[in-house]
Amino acid sequence: MALIINNFNNLNHLEIMKAAQVQEKGGDFKIVELEKPTPKAKEVLIKVEACGICHSDAFVKDGTFPGIEYPRVPGHEVVGTIEEVGKEVKMWKKGQRIGVGWHGGHCFECDPCRRGDFINCQNAKVSGISYDGGYAEYMTAPQEAVASVPEELSSAEAAPLLCAGITVYNALRNSGIKPGDLVAVQGIGGLGHLAVQYAVKMGMRTVAVSHSDSKKELAKELGAQHFINTDKEDPAKALQNLGGARLILATAPVSKAITSVVDGLGIDGKLLMVAATGEPVEVSPMQLLMGRKSLSGWPSGTAKDSEDTLNFSALTQTVPKIEEYPLEKVNEAYERMISNKARFRVVLKP
Question: Taking every annotated instance into account, which residue ranges of this chain make up the domain Enoyl reductase (ER) (predicted)?
Fold first, then answer.
């Protein structure tokens, strides 16, 4: 009897939080009450202030990520404050505002990690996939997955920068471009509208490439010097008329659209793909041989790359265009994102 009473008393002292959980492959998000997590020795407990909804969250909802386990709370664009740190955490303190992106931790032991290539860790964790993410009032994360957030950015503005922002910023800064180069951004959506801003603020001659004039005014507002409507003109010819692109950053996951811009590359031009599509891009060796052209891809980055992205964004006042929803409207918010109706990133507020 004493044991039963003791267990009952323990239950009364449990701290409960709300979360949006996917309980099975293809299932809807359900608002549930879960026990507030406790950080392990090398983790931090985060009180979530904002969490972006990313297209990659479909991996959880649709069950397409290898090894995904249910139930699972998604979310890898998380900003909040540290409420508690694990006993072995030294560099983070209670009350700090921090963020967690796609890269949710690494093992420090595999060959890429031993070479400092943490983004390619063979045992890498993904926030909201390997462990519960930010569609909740609280979450825990490994200390190496945490990035400091500058005070100039609001939590809602900063959240999408931890995936969409870092993806395009890190790709651009590692592409070899120099101020004055012609840089084309294919697709003016959640990633592309940030890529245009970053390219402009890095000093590039920036071309926005879209299939509709509906993005023309937005592209100009974001700073693009040129706009190409692919429904009205051949984008490759249009880019060649501008001198040929040193870099084309492919942000829209439409393989035919990416294929259509390959011949717009100039000498030593690079087509850099960050759009996650499983469909093949068609290109022949002859298209690349003359002019030393190349195709490549770029993953997002580590927590330190996230910090660099956030700091550059604060310095240059580069922020995403967002729509905010309360956690309770997660199904409505997710549908806005997955149907491409959102302009341009969706953010949940617990």
Answer: 26-348
Ordered alpha helix ranges (H), the chain: 2-12, 58-62, 111-114, 155-160, 166-173, 192-201, 216-222, 235-241, 255-259, 285-289, 303-316, 330-338
| Distances 18 to 49, 85, 151, 160, 328 between C-alpha atoms, Å | 13, 21, 27, 22, 9
pLDDT in tens, 155-182: 999 999 999 999 999 999 999 999 999 9
pLDDT digits (tens, 9 = 90+) for 257-279: 999 999 999 999 999 999 988 89
In the numeric block, which tokens belong to residue 260? 């259509």
Domains of the chain plus CATH, in order, are 2-162+301-349 (3.90.180.10), 175-297 (3.40.50.720)
Contacts with 95 (C-beta within 8 Å, 6 or more apart), sequence order: 81, 82
- For the stretch 56-83, pLDDT in tens is 999 999 999 999 999 999 999 999 999 9
Tokens of 294: 């190349």
Read off the pLDDT of each residue in 35-52 and give the average, rounded to a whole number: 98
The answer to whether 7 and 306 are in contact (CB under 8 A) is no
Residues in the chain: 350
